[in-house]
Structures are given as structure tokens and as C-alpha cells.
Amino acid sequence: MASHDTAAPPSKGGAAPGRPAPGQPSEAEQRRRARLSRRWQRDIKWSPYAFVSPFFLLFLAFGLFPLVYTGWASLHQVELTAPTDMKWVGLRNYTRIFDDDFFWNAAKNTLTIGIISTVPQLLMALGIAHILNYRLRASTFYRVVILAPYATSIAAAALVFVLLFGHDYGMINWGLDLVGLGPVDWQNDKWSSQIAVSTIIIWRWTGYNALIYLAAMQAIPNDLYESAALDGASRWQQFIHVTLPSLRPTILFTVVVSTIGASQVFGEPLLFDPNTGASGGGEHQYQTLGLYLYEQGWVNQHLGRASAIAWTMFLILIVIGIVNYVISRRLRSSSGS
Amino acid sequence: MRARSRTSRRVVVLAAAVSLGAGLLAGCADDGDDNASGDPSASSGGGGGKGQTTISLGLFGTQGFKQAGLYTEYEKLHPEIKIQENVVERNENYYPALLNHLTTNAGLMDVQAIEVGNIAEIVATQADKFVDIGKAEGVVKSNWLDWKWAQSTTKDGKTIALGTDVGPTGICYRKDLFQAAGLPTDREQVSQLWAGDWKKVISVGERYKSKAPSGTYFMDSPGGLFNSIMGSEEQKYYDKDGEVIYKSNPKVRAAFDIAGEAAQKGLVQPVTQFQTGWDQSIANNKFAAVTCPPWMLGYLKDKSKPEAVGKWDVAQAPKAGNWGGTFLGVPKASKHVKEAEALVTWLTQPAQLAKLFAVQGSVPSTPAAYTLPQVTAGKNDMTGDAPIGQIFTQAAKNIPVQPIGPKDQIIQQGMTDNGVFLVTKGKSIQEAWDNATKTIDNNLDK
């Protein structure tokens, strides 16, 4: 520390006018200043890199390395029990994905679960945000409550939902029974299990999206509503013609984020049936791609196959991202004109 | 003055940066310390501070050594030794970590427990990471049940772990439900109902169903029935040479058909074991019989309402099988191999295992213990005065020597959860079999 006390700012470029120099500084003083100046310049030049380096070092270690290693492993036959014992198989792990029924089944499930969870979720979020946007007593309270599910851990939420969706002693079947409908086998039928899994996702994420919408709604200038009201627009018409168009970029954002989230769904289906776990039900009826990847890698210990699945998912995600990007650009340009 | 204040601001910023950095470093150092104290094998010899050697055990679930007071006893016998156990609640979490530690040769305890479901994989892939404890001083091979010894021994005769307990299966049944359905309740007579043949379970089940209290099932689950049949066969999914034979072994298909028939006839509950629905059915007395190794009595007690205590009894299974059991091995990476070997040798002696039975109900893997009073007098809350020590040790002697393979668990889970369970959902037995074999083949394919 002591050495830094002497590190005076350079005379030029500093905000303060230099102290009036009492004649020529001595030679030693000049050398000292030159040295300090060099140090200062090195500092200016390299310090920013040092400051940003932690992120990039961490990214190298935990982002890039796993990505490259997974890519390398996906070209080999390698088991989790002996990760160093690799056998080169080229693209076999990828080619077999083409006729892997389980992979495509998981892909289909990911898509359907994604749709039946994302669409209602965003619609409900929009509605909730609209209601919260009214002048309400204790509005902060409602906003916090709305966000509460998002703060719960998936494990806790899934546990409760498993109990609710239980076949024999679940509250939902009990309710269905009360109104005279037969019990639904939530865990073992294709659609009912997918709906149940989607319910957990919807429950967790609706509030989160609602808050995002709410924030965007509050940024809409009030004059727009006032003039719309003067023109005789009803609340509903105001929502359709003022709120929705102003929210367009926000809606696009939530759609993109939700799509990415939906393609990686993992925790909810894994915990929905703790026993069959990664196989996603007896007939893999709600096994998502995330689960299939986990099953191959961590249950069956086929690291090579799991890596290939991970990379295929990554490529699919990129395609989805590009499609999203194109659509959003179209929409943005059409809204701009 | 302004220049001066700039300087001091810089100083403050630098000081903050340095102290943050120092804090980070200190944080790392703290972690290091934590590790050292959490993992006594790292602080070699210095554990107790008084020249003591600390032996660490990596265990899963409740093994009961501590509860039976064995550590205290051993420390009294060997004052220079201090024992510390590190327990992970579930084997699903314990085993992947153990594999990781073994493959990276780091973070291992001086003694590591291995579940019977994983022992074949460890023997096949990790044997070189363990010391040959079969050759340790004081280990007498003939103490152990042959098959238990064989399970932890490699082809070239290296024994990597010593067995502690085994899981001989009987059939636990509710006396009150059996009586209500007009079946005998005496355990000898009940054993006679199905003696020697699992198929007879179906006819007993049908008898039960015709007069059963409404809403109850004869047995707990199709998967449980399938597993207990397979546990009693000479061969299950692998042959002696380690080849997968689950599709060609007629015993597998036969067991599948029996469990499937029970499912079709509504004799088993349409649930999977250890799932919420199954747990709830225990609490609500929904089934009359379940295949049970001794540890199952503890599980039943956990999930039952208090009034169920004493209403159960144990009969012999049609054919004795095994379900569960643990081994203790010493990794070569241990810093105190000699001391760890001595501890494992002592813990697995018949006298100690008998004490374990008294507390934990886990049946010793050393038959010499079966005549010790702690075992012969063994009883359990759930089964009242039934002499479970004698019942289960008798079953233990009849367990077949069964080759187990590295992927037994995956095959078994495919057979039950992706197979015979589907029959309760209206699939035909053949459809369920196809679904199971397709799943298993995909999971086995490297």
C-alpha cells in the first residue's frame, strides 16, 4: 500500500491545473516522474483487462471448456465410470439420434409441453399485469404475492403438485370426484401427465412474466389512455389498441425467454414422478429432451451419447433462436412503419 | 487540494480492491481449511490432535454402526484411533459421488460403503482402486455367506469389500386383513400356502380377493412382486460370464408373466414402490402382503399410523431371495490403509454384526452370527412377538448364489417401471414386455 501513496496523478490530463513548478525539477525528480508515468500508462492499459478477467476466466473454465469437452466426448464411446477411457466412434452418436425413437419422443414432448405451458402462461401473465395496473390498494402486496411462486424452489413446488395430482389421495381427483367426474390418472396418461407438468411450470413462471409486463405497462404514457378515453374507447378497447401495441417488444422478449426455458424443461418432469424419474413415466410420456439427456448421462452413464444429445439440443436451440430473431425483426419493422 | 483529494480517492478505491481481493483469497483459504477439517483423511494423523489417527467412513442411509455403539467400542479398544462417519442420506446421491471420487482419485474416505446394487459395477470397473481386503489380517473367508463373498470378488480373486448385511426376503402380511379374507394367519400355515412356487401367490391372491375387505389389494405392487421373484432365481439378467441374458433367460419372462397376471387380475395395487402413492397406501392399510427383507419392517413402521404396530407377521417367501445389503471397502487412496482395514475387519466380525442386527434389524452376512443371542432373540415392533431373527436368518441360508451384473439396476427398473407396471394401466403383458425391453436395450446401448 505504501508505494501507492506516492503515486501522484500525472500533471497533464489531470483535472487540476498542475502545481506551479518552482523552476526546473531535478533530474532525479524527472526520472521519478517518468517512471510513475510509465506505470500509470501500464495501469491504464492493462487494468481494465484485469478487472473484466474474472468473468472470462470463469467462462473459460465453466462455459467454454465444458462445451468443447462435451463436443469431444460426443465423438467417442465413453462411460461415466471411466471418463478417461475414450473410444473414437466418429459421428455415430449423432447418426443414431436420427432413428432413436426415444429422442424424437422426447423432442415431441418438449414441444407439446412447451406449447401447453408457454401459451396459457403468457396470456394469463398479460391479464394479471393488466389487472395489477389498475389503481389498487396494497398493490405492492399483490405484486410480491404474484412473484412468490417464482421464488419457490422447483423441488418444493413439484413435491406439492405431486401430492395434488395423486391418483388415489390427490386433492384434484378428490375435487373431480365431488363434481361427479371420474378420477384422472395424472401420472400415467400422456396428455394428463403433460398437462400436470405444464401446470407446475405455469404456476412458477406466470407471476414472473406478469411483473415484466406490468413494468412495461407502467412505462406507457398516461396521455394515450386519456385521449383514448376522450375518444370513447372502453377499457377493453384501450387494452387492445393502446396497451398491446406498446407492449410488443416486451411480449417478444418474454416469448423468446419462455421458448428457451421451455426447450430446457427439466426439474418439473424429473420430480413429477420421483420414482421413474428420468425416464419420464412408464411409457416416457412426459420425458423431455433435458430428461433424456440426464437419463443417458447420469442414470445409464453413457457420457458420449449424452454429449451428442446435448450438442443436438444446442443446435436445435440455435435454430429456434434464429427463427425467433427473424420473426421478431419482421414484427419490429412492421410495427415501426 | 483537488489533486490531493483525487489521490486519496484512488487510495480508497485501491484499498477497497485490495481488501476485496484479500477477502476472496481468505475465502479460498477458508474453504481449504473447511475441506481439511471436513475430510479428516486430508489432515493425516493430526485429526485428534493427540497423535490420534482419524479413520473416516463414507456411508449412505442408516447403517447403524454408530447407533449400535460400535465406534465407541472400537475407540475404547484402540485408543489411538478416532472414527468419524460421513453419511449421505440416499444411495442415489451417494453412489455417483463415490464413482466420481474413485475415477478422479480424490475426496475418498478411508472406508467407503457400497450398495449391493452397485457392487458388480464397482468390481467390474473400479477394482484397481481398492485394496484386496480379502487378504487383510484377521479376515476369514468362511465366515461369510458364499454368494455374499463372491459378489465383491473379482474374477481373478481379489476381494474389494467385505459384506455387512444381507436382505433375505420373507413375505410380511397383515394378520387382520388375512383373517377378514378367510385366509390362515399363522405364519407356518401362511408359508405353506405358497411354499416352493411363486405361481401359488396368484391363487392365494384370488382367494384373498374373493372375500377381501373392499378397497384393499392382496399385494403392494407389480414391481415389488417381480423383483422378489427375480431375487430368488439362480440367474437373473447376467450369466456367469457377464453376458446380458435378460431377454433369453426364461426365468425373467416367467416372473414377468406372473407379476403381469397378478396385475391383470387386480391382485396388486397399480402403484410403484417407494412412490408417494405407495407410501399413502401403507398408511391407509390398502394391501395385505408385501415381500419384505428385514429393513422393510422399518420402512413400514415409518409410513404407518401407530395403530398398525403389531398387526404384521412374517412368513417364508415361496423361494428365498435377497434384496439389499451393503459392503465396506478400503480405497487405495486412503491415508491409513492398515488402520482402515483393521476397522473394517473388526466391524464385519459376526459378534459386531449381531449387535447391528439388534439395533438395526439388518441380517448379518456372516452365518456364524445367526446363533448369537442378539439375533435369535430378535423381534420387531411391527411384527410383535414374531421371532424375526430366526425367520430371516433361515431365509438367508437359502438365498441362491446369483451372478449380478453392472447394469442390474437399470434392467430391473426397466422391467418394473417401464414394464410390468403398465399392465395395471390396461396394457397387455406382451405390450408391457415390448416397452420394457425396448427401453432397456436403449439404456444398455453404449
From TrEMBL, chain A:
GO aspect biological process, one term: transmembrane transport
InterPro entries in the cross-refs: ABC_transporter_permease (IPR051393), MetI-like (IPR000515), MetI-like_sf (IPR035906)
Topology in the lipid bilayer: Multi-pass membrane protein
Gene Ontology CC: one annotated term: plasma membrane
Comp. bias intervals (Low complexity): 7-18
CDD domains documented for this protein: TM_PBP2
Location, primary (coarse class): membrane
Pfam families on file: BPD_transp_1
Keyword Transmembrane: yes
Domain (ABC transmembrane type-1) ranges: 107-324
Segments passing through the bilayer: 46-69, 111-132, 144-166, 308-327
Assigned protein family: Belongs to the binding-protein-dependent transport system permease family.
UniProt protein name: Sugar ABC transporter permease
Protein's organism: Streptomyces roseirectus
TrEMBL record, chain B:
Pfam families, per database record: SBP_bac_8
Gene3D superfamilies linked: Periplasmic binding protein-like II (3.40.190.10)
Span of the signal peptide: 1-26
Keywords linked to the UniProt accession: Signal
InterPro entries listed in its UniProt record: Bact_solute-bd_prot1, SBP
Lineage: superkingdom: Bacteria
Protein name according to UniProt: Carbohydrate ABC transporter substrate-binding protein
Species, as recorded: Streptomyces roseirectus
